[in-house]
Amino acid sequence: xxxxxxxxxxxxxxxxxxxxxxxxxxxxxxxxxxxxxxxxxxxxxxxxxxxxxxxxxxxxxxxxxxxxxxxxxxxxxxxxxxxxxxxxxxxxxxxxxxxxxxxxxxxxxxxxxxxxxxxxxxxxxxxx
Length: 128
What we know:
mainly alpha
């Protein structure tokens, strides 16, 4: 439509009707729309999407493997180094469990706190 309005035959009618400023505003609006649309299309195309559930599962599995390894070393060698490491891990886990417990869903937070308490108890009993 804008190209038709720029045509010489139509340009005379635009001048006669004195709608040149409306055509100019329409042209500017069209250009602004094209710029925004292209920007949005580019930003949507380059947006990175993560599968958080899979990442959390992988992280949880790695963490469980690490905890099991530390527990095995502690049982095997009975060294103070591993007991200190277990205390640090339990403190860190308790801190994050408390953060999760303060979040909105009370049902999940009580389960998380109970699970942390059970794991802490299990690791502390293995220290003895």
